[in-house]
Amino acid sequence: MSKRDTSVKHIFDHMNYRDCIEKMDKLDEWLKTTFFPTLGPNSIDVNDVINKQKLCSVSIPENIDQLVDSILEPDDLDRQKRSMLLEKLATSVEQNSELLAQIEAATRGILLRDTKQKVVPILKEYFIYYSTFPLQYSIDDKKTVVGVFSNETPLINVGLFIAPALASGCRIIVQAGTKIFLALHLIKELAASIGFHSITVIPSDDNHLSTYIGSSVELSVVVLFDDLLDKKYSTVPDEKTNTRIVYLTNYRIPAIIFDDADLHAATEGIISAAWSKWAHSSVGTVFVQESILDQFLDMLKKKLSHLKVGPSNEKLADISQCISDLSCLKKTLESSLCMEKFQVLKNDDIWQPTLILGGKVDDGQAFSSTEDDGQVLTVLSFRSIEEAISMANSSKQGLAASVWSENLCLINEVVRKLKVTNIWINGTYGTTAANVTFTPLKGSGVGNFGGVEGFFELLSPYDAFIPKAENDSDKNISSAIGAAKKGQECWGKISKIKKKLLLLAKLKDLLNKHFSSNAEDYYSIIYRYFNGRDSSFATTQSGFDLVSYQEPRGVVAVGNIQDKHAIYVTVRALYEGNAVISQHWIAKELGPLLPDGVLKYIPDTAEATRAVESHNDVQVFFGSWNAEMLPPSHVTDSSNIQSILEEEFYNKVSVVKNVWCDVGKSSLCNFGE
């Protein structure tokens, strides 16, 4: 065996330090004293991804339906007690950060320091943030909510579900993939130790939603942290249900690097964003301006050659070698059509950071990355701003993007054109805060997560099933939607004050004509919605500037619902900058008085409804359906539609866009800490 060179010169030349393996003692002790309940006759081994040894066995329920019906007990904690316990839980999670980090390192290959330094602080913040909600809001009708966590779900998402669910007083079912089960079981233990007994954690990799949709237990919401379009979710019961389904995927996101970016910082940031698993989504594709492509690739390859890849309990490791399966990497490389594939080591028998350079771009498929792609990083070039934005928007994910530039005007232009709701500028990748709402677009999900909106998402049920589209879209309906989409592009650029004045002027005569006896009631409520909830704000948090503002969803559809609801939702949607297509008479009379395409009337027929439901350019549909006239659909047939009760439209006609900028650590004050 050759002797290892430990000279100072060799170390500085090769950055090759002695291995420093951290102990996993807290995990070992916890496993010795932890009891996992017997939920069924079958069990599965949970293995250590570092040494491939068995950690423990967990019981897998044979019939989740019966289990769900039998395990739940109501939570009778008063509001003051609930608030106090949430603060205690935040402290308890922080105190057990080392154990939580060891569990994540052993079961999912997450670096110990990522869990301790990045995940645990934000989890603590979520529990503290929602601890005030029991005192602010009185929840009388406490429902049962379900959270389905796949094995790829970042642990940070626990704060998006368990924290607001505990604050609301809901009874909680957590279905956890077998790899993430131990971490969620620990959080359940910590919650139970301080007085929260309303959480049940079920280990299962069979995430069939039919279990919950068809359960005899009255469920309010199923929150799915997985891809709803996956084939395993294709079968749900045919009966109508008031169980709502919201979901958030962890599709990998794009990054755009312009020619004025700090390339040293950008390459470091891209490496961290591409090969870490702690944040909501990792970067899967980088678009680099053509003029700096060669320089960027040279820097990136050089940094990768000096990168330390090691086990997740290696203290000096830059990247965990356990974050992806080798078979996934091989499969991706075999199917990839690219100009070059780059790996530091010429060894096909180990997982390692891999670059795919260039390639054929076909309808966005080259950069619609999923978490089972072997964690490869695709690098593509662009020439113009428009080309970069077009390619980034071609991805089926609509949650986030990373932008690198020193040009403020360029950043502002890109931010407004990207079809995502979270944008990290320069070195802010992964930054979040408990009071910030995530509103995923496109294939990234449906619903609101985090903040006030995320809290109310768990409370107000609506019908998640809407008419199934069995026929092709009617040409007239498609034409109306196309005109609405075109009209919205101009309408959305008009200031809110101008839209408000125009709408009020045109509505006055219509309301007096149809509601002469109570027109004033309509005026007062319309004014209230003009001045209603607005999630826009700007603040500085933890050394970062955050600007959150509302953007229109695009094309909103309204069924022939009650007069007051139809008028209110139409006015609010138009005020927020959307175009509206509607089956209500208000569209027939008000539409011609507004700019072309902004408000279009469509027939109130089942065929028209099906055509609207099947159209990809309709973002939201407000309506109530007659089950005898229109058959219920599978959830996956309506993934781009939100069918909600009319009373809940106020935060559904717009999305919150969050823009994070690094302002430096000098903005912080530690008071001598």
From TrEMBL:
In terms of domain of life, where is this protein from? Eukaryota
InterPro entries, per this entry? Ald_DH/histidinol_DH (IPR016161), Ald_DH_C (IPR016163), Ald_DH_N (IPR016162), Aldehyde_DH_dom (IPR015590)
Tell me any Pfam family this protein matches: Aldedh
Q: Which residues form the Aldehyde dehydrogenase domain?
A: 77-458
Q: What is this protein called?
A: Aldehyde dehydrogenase domain-containing protein
Native organism is Acanthoscelides obtectus (Bean weevil)
Q: Which GO terms describe its molecular function?
A: oxidoreductase activity, acting on the aldehyde or oxo group of donors, NAD or NADP as acceptor
Q: Which SUPFAM superfamilies match?
A: ALDH-like (SSF53720)
